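In response to a reviewer's request, we include the raw inputs and outputs for one of the modeled complexes. The two entities were modeled together in a single run.
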Amino acid sequence: MSGSKKGLLIFTFSLLLAGAEARAGELLVSRAGCHFYQLDAGKWAPGNRIDYPSLGEVVSVVPHPKDPAYSVLRKGGKTFILETACLEAIPALPPAPGAIPALPESTATPDPIPTSVSEEAPATTPTPVVEEAPEPMPAPVARLSPTKRGTSFLLSLAYWSWQESGNFITPDETVNELRLNSDGWGPAIELRFPIGQITDLSTRFSLLLGGANAATRNNNLYSSQGSSLLGLVMEPGLRWNPVERGFSMGLTLPLSIKSIAFPEAEDGYLVEYYPIRFGLLARGGWEEGRWGVGMGFGFLQSFSFPMWTVDLNLCF
Amino acid sequence: MPFVALIFALAGMGLLTQRAHAYPQTIAQGYPSCRACHFNPYGGGPLTDYGRGLGAIEMAAKWTSPLTDDERISDHSGFLGPFGTLPPWFRMQAGYRGLSLSTGLESTRQSRWITMQADVSVILKDPEDHFYAVGNLGYVPPPAALPAAQQKTAETNISREHYLAYEFNDLFSLYAGFMDPAYGIRVVEHTAYIRTKSLLNSNDQTHGVMLRLMTKRIETSIHVMLGNLYQDSTLRLSGVTIPFEVETAENTRVGVSVFSGSNQYRKRVQGALYGRFGFSPDGSLLAQYGLQEDTPTALGASTRIGDSGFLQGSARFTRGVIGLLTVERARENFNVGSSTVWRAGPAIQIFPMNRVELRFDFLATHTNSPKTVAPDLYTLLGQLHVWL
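The model returned the following structure tokens for the whole complex.
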């Protein structure tokens, strides 16, 4: 490699292949196009997120926040900065070999060219786009097809809490506003179906075992405490994981179905207490490996009452 | 109002932003200890030079900055900004934090402006920061609950910390003076239940001596408290508090704190388990759960045992914009049928430029009472924080 290239951007990105006997799947990107050992031709574009279930890896490509000429590849919490032109210049590769061979010695040890790129420092002096023809590209030694993100499944322990209203009718047909506080714990499952690079369609089912308190504004009319509650909350929604798995957010439409064993009133009855309610919930998720914590805040019953939830998740 | 709250919720979760970038919440960024950015080893108070620089280039947006180079932005983060630097033995910081508090959104809205902080801090130090003295003086408004006549005569000057610090070596450091008790996570929300129920509100500092041990993975202290010597002697809460924190993994720190103190009217024993978790550079979780035992000394008074919990997730959507989602709980007393209070809601924290912070919170407070069903309460908070 010529001396002029020594100062060029060199990006080295290694993925260790699970089960491979030797290191393979190493990606070298050189701004001058000298080495391209890419895993997924054409996929390295800003905004993409590439999931390698077999590797247990997720690679995110995001635009550099300061300079569009650069992009940031993120993997496992580490960031690597390289020129966007390098990504765009990656050509398509021949079909993948049946077996993944070990990386040849010549490429297993990357060219020890001094690099001007640190993993942390932002590149502030972008050099022009590739202006010279790439050197002949060595035969690819590894290729993994970018596997579409599969359906993921979560098991959760969730807590829900919300307030809603109803009415209590006295024998003289007077309508009295009734307020109900409900909360409960229970197991939940969630299915996430990928519909884009960073977007999932999600459906969550939470079973609730808890209690409810109810009282009219005039407590002398009706009051009950600790009535047992059995409920189910279904939450279809969308979830975004914009950068990587460590954080996600979403918007869901909870539908709660519940049964509360209110004690019967001697001098009246409960009406307009609906066992089915709709709502809208904003959700956040913080996940590390298989474990995660989720939180949600929103409204139930035509935005009249707040509801929130906290859950501990185990992802499969 | 509900639509405003929904917009908050959506914005809080970043749905109104076009793209999400990683926000290196300090624990996620590899700063498990507060000492890197604050002179006070448990956070709060004036920033170190490093903390000023980090805040300027990591937290603040560059929307209005004429500078594009982070290095220069960091260079201009000192008290004098672009006009120079203070001598290495002297540092200053001035800050103002005001709050627009709107309550009763569910019924009759009431709003007022509260000055939470208006103070100046001065630091005298040796150039290596091994020895330093921190002094703080500010204005505190008279309590709104005071009658008007008493408000006129109420003390409005306050010092929230003044202490001497000596760092013997990389392991041990000693602090003596007036400062916050070292206990739990020192969240910025001073009205959080984990602070108010633990007697750690914004004016609950104590005189005392604190010895701190910091190793690669462990940070612990023993803080001997003499109480607030500016208070009447019968009110001074003297005792000891010990926080013990372990870095169990990268960007993960868990801890336990115990606190024992007493004055003429009460004996307080409390403990808390807590953790700070960084999830790559994108966000973080703060979690704390504590129990408090309060024993009045009055004859016939019974011991009260209560709890407080705090869970807050955060994510930076872009540089200078952070979304928060918080759920809290507290119960005053387990022994009798007291109420359990839950508070939850989203918030947006915006640093449009260095030295300026805007924050908007929407909070819903929900009370589970054994006797009544109180309507949920909505609160809207808007904060302006500026500092030099």
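As requested, we also summarize the result in words. Confidence is low (pLDDT under 50) at residues 9-24 of chain B. The longest strand of chain B covers residues 110-125.
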